[in-house]
Amino acid sequence: MMTEKTLAYFRKIVKEAIKSGKIAGFLGWREVADMPGKTRAFVATTPEEVDLLVFNSFSRENLSRLLGGKTFYIPELKKGQKFGVMVKGCDSRNLLANVAENKVDRDNLWVIGVKCPGTIDIDLVRSGLDSDIKNITDDGTTLHVEMLDGKKADLVKSDYYDPRCLRCPYTSALEVDELLPDDMPKKPTKNWEKWMESYLQKPFEERRAYIISQLSRCTMCFACRDACPGCYCNTNCIMDYPKLPEPYLQKGTSLASILTYHFIHYFHLSDRCTNCGECARACPESIPLNLITEQLGYMTKTTWDFEPGTSDKAKTPLALYKVEEVLGR
Amino acid sequence: MKIKKEKMLSLIDESRKTHVVYAPQKNGAVTNFKKVEDIKSIDLKTVRTATPAKEAVFPQTELIYKVESDKVHQADASKPAILFGVRPCDARGIQVLDNFFLARDRKDGGKQPFEDPYWKEKRDKTLIIAIACEKPLSTCACSSLGIHPASEAGSDILLVPEGDSYQLVVSTEKGKAFIEANKSMFEDGGDAKAAQEKVKKACESMMIFKLDTSKAGQYMKLYESPIWQKVSQGCISCGVCTFFCPTCHCFEMRDRKTGAVSCDRDKCWDSCHFTVYSLEASGHNPRPDVAARYRNKILDKYQYHMTLYGEIACTGCGRCSDLCPSGISLSETLKTLGGAL
Ligand code: SF4
Ligand code: SF4
Ligand code: SF4
Ligand code: SF4
Q1: How many other CB atoms sit within 10 Å of the CB of residue A75?
Q2: What CA–CA distance (Å, rounded) separates B325 from A60?
Q3: Are B222 and B215 in contact (CB under 8 A)?
Q4: ipTM, 2 decimals?
Q5: What's the DSSP call for residue B42?
Q6: How far apart, in whole angstroms, are the C-alpha atoms of residue A71 and residue A69?
Q7: What is the pLDDT of residue A204?
Q8: Backbone angles phi, psi at A34, to 5 degrees
Q9: DSSP β-bridge partners for residue B146
């Protein structure tokens, strides 16, 4: 959540940019009137619409996934005109990664970033309550919840962060055109690398059995792919290929198909995944896909000292090879 | 008629000898309908399962036949089943799906002479025991769609919680036969209608999500309108709102190679939200963008189904809004569309 002052400043500069014709529209978040604790992506094209833009603890959707790949929201731009977008830390990394892969033309964008205070996992909040949420507000340290049965609860905010936010090292959006003032509360951090090291100490069989037990309820809806800012193959995704004869590349929900799909998804993201956590957030079956992405992130970092999405130039390690790599063995 | 809650569970346990029983059970962070191996794992506290109950009659992946060199083996006939602990919105969903899967005269004057034998077989063999909802979720809106939290629509038997017992509302011959066969477990007494009314009132008083159905059947007028871009803004075409919808019924056939000269033919769920759903072999896609696909979903439920069968293909379960990773709410969409008419 931003202070009133920053919100007013943010809306002011966006309005000015729209009025002057500098941008054709601005992609941000707005509240969803009838769903407490949720926001949705919204393109403001008039100064009046800018007043609907917000940024709060529930602005979880990664907006960079809407800038390339399968969903194009960039309208036709006049010469010299740009399209505005707001990014959190994680969104900014996915944007950089896609710019580095020539999937987005950065010159067309005007990017406003925030120093993200972390987001709240609304489903985690809901799962702990006797009655579902009627209204929820956040004062920076406490979540004030009003429930459907009329009861109220004050929850300690730090218990309900989205796990991806706890591990996020880049809360401040990277390489943006304008960074909004840092006036938001700080989120707690979890040393996930340390956590990952202890996780990897567990026997392989145990980890494998757990992840399979969770993946076995996968419905192959591919929401995890569609939510992924790094999955931009569009209709060329191999899982969408209509009639492949291979036994495992099928839409059906056999465990073999499920594992093949996830293997392909995460193999294609292995050195590109920024750990933004969108796949795990999107999954309607609440499958802890973050266990896979966190491990990928850890391996990419420890093997190549590489963090995807931290520069708009760097090529990902698997897209390159060094001569020594081939000759050295 | 009524039955003590724990007696109901032992009856369900007993029925496992003759039936396959599906009931809501916890699996990781979600609850879904699964085959019951141990009645202790039945979770009747969770209001709404992630996957709708349609799964038991319309499995996500259903084997139709196996081919082995020059022989074709039909899949085995299914066993009699009990679908236990279904919420009224899901029971109603199965009833709505009958429109699509069974033979009937249509409202638009058309005839629908064929029925889906796989649906029919499972449907006929499945006894639906629903349970009324004592509390809603934030996105529950059954009462907007002609049913309510204690509605018996679509169920063979409805259980209405009342103290340590369930009052019974029996709607079908199938339901009656089940009760008759297990007479000793049930007791007379109580007023099912009154219990139903009480649970309905209490639950409805807590609902906040409303779906405006007053304009259903008129949205065709907006077909060419740019409004679909607006209501679908942020949609990533993930298909969650359709896969998890109790009335969505698209499927496709997939042949899965199982050996050099053998294959399985499966009937698998499909979704009009998938990018390749309407992609033609020529490369042309009549629903090329998110807005066109989103429009199809809304029109299918609130327009086409009305025209063909005189009913809205939505039960107000709220899943499409709740599970949407992009925060797109059906309530908001209907409000916006209604405002534009
Ligand atoms: S992952 Fe980081 S940048 Fe993204 S929402 Fe969480 S704290 Fe903010
Ligand atoms: S793989 Fe998962 S964590 Fe990585 S970018 Fe895609 S959705 Fe985000
Ligand atoms: S979002 Fe979840 S259910 Fe859907 S394909 Fe991905 S893991 Fe499976
Ligand atoms: S669940 Fe939401 S994002 Fe996914 S297809 Fe439906 S409306 Fe679009």
Answers
A1: 12
A2: 9
A3: no
A4: 0.92
A5: B
A6: 6
A7: 95
A8: -105, 10
A9: none
Distance B179 CA to ligand 4 centre (A): 42
Q: Are A289 and A223 in contact (CB under 8 A)?
A: no
Average pLDDT value for residue range A206-223: 94
Nearest-CA residue of chain B relative to A231? Answer: B236
Distance (Å, whole) CA A20 – CA B258? 63
The type of residue at A2 is M
Give the span between the Cα atoms of B111 and B96, in whole angstroms.
17
Name the closest-CA residue to atom 5, ligand 2: A273
Task: Look at the block and give the residue holding tokens 């993200």.
Answer: A116
Q: Are strands B71-74 and A53-54 parallel, antiparallel or unpaired?
A: unpaired
Mention every residue, 6+ apart, whose C-beta is less than 8 A from residue A235: B275, B276, B279, B285
Check pLDDT > 60 for residue A245.
no
**DSSP-assigned beta bridge partners for residue B68:** B71, B262
Confidence (pLDDT) at A182: 78
Mean pLDDT of chain B: 95
The helices-and-strands tally (H runs, E runs) of chain B is: 11, 13
Cβ–Cβ under 8 Å, residues B165 and B190: yes
Residues within 8 A of A (CB atoms), B 221-280 only: 233-240, 243-244, 252, 254-258, 266, 268-271, 274-276, 279
Query: How far is the centre of ligand 3, averaged over its atoms, from the C-alpha of A136 (Å)?
Result: 28
Element at B26 (helix H, strand E): strand B20-27
Q: What are phi and psi of B255, to 5 degrees?
A: -100, 125
pTM: 0.93
**Amino acid letter, B199:** V
Chain A residues lying within 8 Å of B325, measured CB to CB: 61, 223, 227, 278, 281-282
- The answer for residues whose C-beta is within 8 angstroms of residue A116's C-beta and 6 or more apart is A88, A89, A90, A165, A168, A171, A172, A173, A184, A187
Rounded CA separation A279/A258 (Å): 15
Q: Does residue A281 line the site of ligand 1, with CB under 6 A? A: no
CB A56 within 8 A of CB B248: no
- Contact assessment for residue A137 and residue A123, using Cβ atoms and an 8 Å cutoff: no
A36-58 in b/e form (b: 16+ CB < 10 A) is: bbbbbbbbbeeeebbeebbbbbb
DSSP state string for B275-334 = TTTT--TTS--SS-SHHHHHHHHHHIIIIIHHHHHSS-S-----HHHHH-TT---HHHHH
Pairwise CA distance, residues B38 & B53, whole Å? 19
Tokens of A180: 């909004």
Is A165 close to ligand 1, i.e. is its CB under 6 Å away?
Answer: yes
If you search the block for the tokens 């008129």, which residue do you land on?
Answer: B218
Question: Residue A75 has what pLDDT?
Answer: 77
Element (H, E) at B339: helix B330-340
Under 8 Å between Cβ of B132 and B199: yes
Sequence-distant (6+) residues with CB within 8 A of B71 are: none
Q: Concatenated DSSP letters for A222-246?
A: -HHHHH-TT---GGG-GGG-TT---
Residues lower than pLDDT 50 in chain B: none
Q: How distant is the Cα of B134 from the closest Cα of chain A, in angstroms?
A: 11
Backbone conformation region of residue A42, classed left if phi is above 0, alpha if psi is from -120 to 50, else beta: beta
